[in-house]
């Protein structure tokens, strides 16, 4: 009887995984009908969407960042809202405000008029053009997924997903995102310039009379089910320990860095910890570890597995941690890339410490 139950459970899990992969494949294929190339960016956005996180897209103008978000909204049967961030934008322009309305009886009362944040998918276009005061309006919405105005808290529609864009080149008239805001983004994805072949395809699609739009292939209820399945994927303690050691390795603390290597560690020994101590001011927060594990769970399901591996953690480490490392003055002056630091940490972090079992 036990074997029969275990077999039924295994078959059910296999069916859930195959259904998950089918739904995600349909979504990605529909996005690919409109967006040319950027397979890694599309994969990163989909992983964050399925994990319940938000995404920051960074790239020069004209690479299709806004088009990607619009296409994603078209492919999912959810409400969509776009907010163009400008220096004169106020928090009430995003969240909403209480308006004085007059009833037919002549009585006046305050009524809350909801802002564009009350949508399932929100595009925060050029988010770094707004002042810190306006940027902070997103802190509560992205973490608690609520809006508080005049002592009243309003629940945002579920599922809720923020995808922000920013231009890394044009610095005039922009306000860098504060660390608290950056930490609320699940992934930071860098949109690179397309290849020559992709450029030809883009021109073929955009310089003719025909236009391609994505069809709705996924509903809100389906997306919530997919998110719930991601949370059910088990993670071995050794894999979770690997993710924790990578996270701790981002901190420029000699004692913690030594513990990451599982050895006493000498402060003057030239290893990857020296790189962290030299150029990193603050390491990643626990949200970084959450992003590592949730993103790895999605990758495991997409690969047809109901268990996370260390390779899954490595694959999502750069987009999950690159924006959570705060460089010191020396690192900024020398133009050190946080991706290089994360890569060095991964290269020197063993999947299993000496004397422990390796999964």
Tally of alpha and pi helices:
16
The N- to C-terminal Cα distance equals: 30 Å
| CATH classification, class level of the largest domain | Alpha Beta
CATH topology name of the largest domain, in short, is Rossmann fold
Along the chain, the helix and strand elements come as: HHEHEEHEEEHHEEEHEHEHHHHEHHEHH
Give the percentage of residues in beta strands: 15-25%
Low-confidence stretches: 260-273
CATH architecture label name of the largest domain: 3-Layer(aba) Sandwich
Biggest sheet strand line-up: 3-6-9-1-10
The whole-angstrom Rg is 23 Å
State the secondary-structure class: alpha/beta
Q: What is the number of E strands?
A: 13
- Helicity range of the residues? 40-55%
Taking the sheet with the most strands, its summary is: 5 strands, parallel
Q: Which keywords apply here?
A:
359 residues, globular, two-stranded parallel ribbon, Rossmann fold, five-stranded parallel β-sheet, Helicase, Ruva Protein, domain 3, alpha/beta, 48% helix, 15% strand
Give a description of the structure:
The chain has helices spanning 2-32, 39-51, 65-75, 91-95, 132-135, 137-143, 179-182, 196-206, 220-232, 237-248, 254-261, 272-279, 286-302, 310-321, 329-333, 338-348; strands spanning 55-58, 76-77, 80-84, 96-102, 108-114, 121-125, 146-149, 152-155, 161-166, 187-190, 218-219, 280-282, 326-327. It is α/β, with parallel strands linked by helices. The chain folds into 2 domains: 14-208 and 217-230, Rossmann fold; 234-348, Orthogonal Bundle (Helicase, Ruva Protein, domain 3), CATH 1.10.8.80. The strands form 5 sheets. It has a 5-stranded parallel beta sheet with strand order 3-6-9-1-10. Residues 260-273 have low confidence and may be disordered.
């Amino acid at each position: 009887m036990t074997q029969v139950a275990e077999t039924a459970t295994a078959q059910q899990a296999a069916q859930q995984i195959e259904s998950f992969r089918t739904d995600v494949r349909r979504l990605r294929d529909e996005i690919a009908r409109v967006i040319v190339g950027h397979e890694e960016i599309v994969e990163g956005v989909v992983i964050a969407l399925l994990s319940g996180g938000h995404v920051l897209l960074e790239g020069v103008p004209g690479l299709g960042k806004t088009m990607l978000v619009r296409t994603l909204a078209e492919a999912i049967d959810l409400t969509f809202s776009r907010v163009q961030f400008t220096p004169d934008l106020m928090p009430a322009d995003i969240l909403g405000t209480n308006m004085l309305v007059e009833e037919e009886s002549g009585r006046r009362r305050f009524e809350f008029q909801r802002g564009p944040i009350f949508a399932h998918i929100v595009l925060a276009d050029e988010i770094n053009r707004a002042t810190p005061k306006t940027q902070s309006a997103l802190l509560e919405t992205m973490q608690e997924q609520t809006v508080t105005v005049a002592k009243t808290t309003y629940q945002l529609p579920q599922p809720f997903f923020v995808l922000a864009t920013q231009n890394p080149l044009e610095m005039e008239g922009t306000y860098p995102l504060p660390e608290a805001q950056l930490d609320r983004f699940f992934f930071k994805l860098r949109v690179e310039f397309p290849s020559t072949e992709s450029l030809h395809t883009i021109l073929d699609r955009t310089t003719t009379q025909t236009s391609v739009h994505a069809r709705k292939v996924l509903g809100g209820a389906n997306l919530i089910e997919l998110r719930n399945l991601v949370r059910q994927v088990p993670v071995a303690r050794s894999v979770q320990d690997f993710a924790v050691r990578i996270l701790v390795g981002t901190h420029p603390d000699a004692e913690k860095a030594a513990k990451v290597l599982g050895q006493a560690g000498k402060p003057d020994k030239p290893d990857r910890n020296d790189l962290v101590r030299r150029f990193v001011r603050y390491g990643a927060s626990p949200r970084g570890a959450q992003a590592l594990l949730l993103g790895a769970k999605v990758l495991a399901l997409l690969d047809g597995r109901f268990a996370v591996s260390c390779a899954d953690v490595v694959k999502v480490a750069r987009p999950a941690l690159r924006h959570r490392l705060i460089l010191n003055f020396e690192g900024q002056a020398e133009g050190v890339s946080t991706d290089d630091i994360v890569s060095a940490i991964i290269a020197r972090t063993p999947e299993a410490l000496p004397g422990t079992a390796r999964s």
